Amino acid sequence: MTVARRLESFGTSIFADITARAVAADAVNLGQGMPDADGPDWIKDAAARAMREHPNQYVPMPGVPALRQAIADRFAATGGGWAPDPETEVTVTSGCTEALAATMLGLLNPGDEVVVFEPFYDAYVADLAMAGAAPRYVPLRMGEDGAFAFNADELEAAVTPETRAILVNTPHNPTGKVFSRDELSAIAELCQRHDLIAISDEVYDCHVYEGEHTRLASLPGMDARTITLGSFGKMFSMTGWKIGWAVAPPELTKAVRSAHQFTTFCVAAPLQHAAAEALRTDEAYYADLRARFRHQRDVLAAGLRGLGFRFADPAGGYFIVADHTPVSEPRGFADDVSFCHHLIEEAGVATIPPSSFYHDSNEGRKLLRFAFCVSEGTIERALRRLRAWSNESVPDEPEA
Length: 400
Ligand SMILES: Cc1ncc(COP(=O)(O)O)c(C=O)c1O
Fold this sequence. Notes:
Blueprint: H1 5-8, H2 14-25, E1 28-29, H3 41-53, H4 65-77, H5 86-89, E2 90-93, H6 95-107, E3 113-118, H7 123-131, E4 134-139, E5 141-142, E6 148-149, H8 152-158, E7 163-169, H9 181-194, E8 197-201, E9 226-231, H10 232-235, E10 244-247, H11 250-263, H12 269-278, H13 283-307, E11 319-323, H14 325-328, H15 336-347, E12 349-350, E13 367-371, H16 376-392
Parallel strand pairs: 1-12, 3-4, 3-7, 7-8, 8-9
Antiparallel strand pairs: 2-10, 5-6, 9-10, 11-13
Helix pairs in contact: 3-12, 4-12, 6-7, 6-11, 13-16
Bound molecules: pyridoxal-5'-phosphate.
Residues 33, 95-97, 121, 169, 173, 201, 203, 231, 233, 239, 242, 244 line the site of pyridoxal-5'-phosphate.
């Protein structure tokens, strides 16, 4: 009795491991991307009301009609490029996590290949393994300016006759990169030239601090071949609700639903009714969310720079990925995992070692990921601890 071969290499997720270490050391947790300021009370009230006023029974497999309509409307109003038909083009899932799994399981055949940018969100590769498909990696590399970019030749070379899809995540976890319109146009051109499906994970579409979010589906020729994935939990800082969705043309939606119907079938009914109300909130909510997260990013960025970490301010998302070597190497650390463990135990601050987001862990060993989705108070507390640790752990000057 053991784990199935297709999953045994994945072990325990890095988030569970780091959170357990953080709890044991009573560390301030800048590891897992979990907001510590809860979502709005009016949404919780809407869920309580829905629980009393609607039957607490199965709802339609693709989602409650009011929520599917709200998702379609918001997609169209935020640069989707077309107005999806909620009947045939919107599916509500148990978080974007399930949308990803349903997409891969419903769409891919064993032996298919999918282009994945790395560092990657860890579920991507496990989902591909469950579907019997294989990743083809394209690295996002940190440049001299600290920003991440891919090389167009490497992207082109990753496509083979077996390639069926490309997985894009913008804004990107963990780097905070917001793919530019030019970069997405190059990806769109590649998709059309090789007849690929685009899976576009846009869970951080409300968390853009510089420039603007472009939906891959909105680019010419992409509406017919793109599955856009979203997450209510990210939009409203209610990650525990696990409501997500897939927006895609009818044929691709059929594939997503073919797996969704046999995994979860339908998502918690009262939460779907409340999410439908939430998605109808006005733009002021999203502007406030962006302003708050941008401020948290700026506080963390200033503090980390003061300590010597090297990075470009992330244009979106929940995280700063920094080159830790200016801080770690003088103190004798060579890789992200050992330095991360040291900071948990000696500084009392938890981060995530990004080497687990690369297929070749060497690629990530100079990096650390810090979350800024937590409150300013939590970030300040972490920075105070890091400064105290830094002052105490300055290496001795070499003897003359
Ligand atoms: C890039 C990315 N995709 C998908 C998810 C999963 O979203 P959800 O919490 O809605 O399942 C996350 C969560 O951290 C994420 O960062």
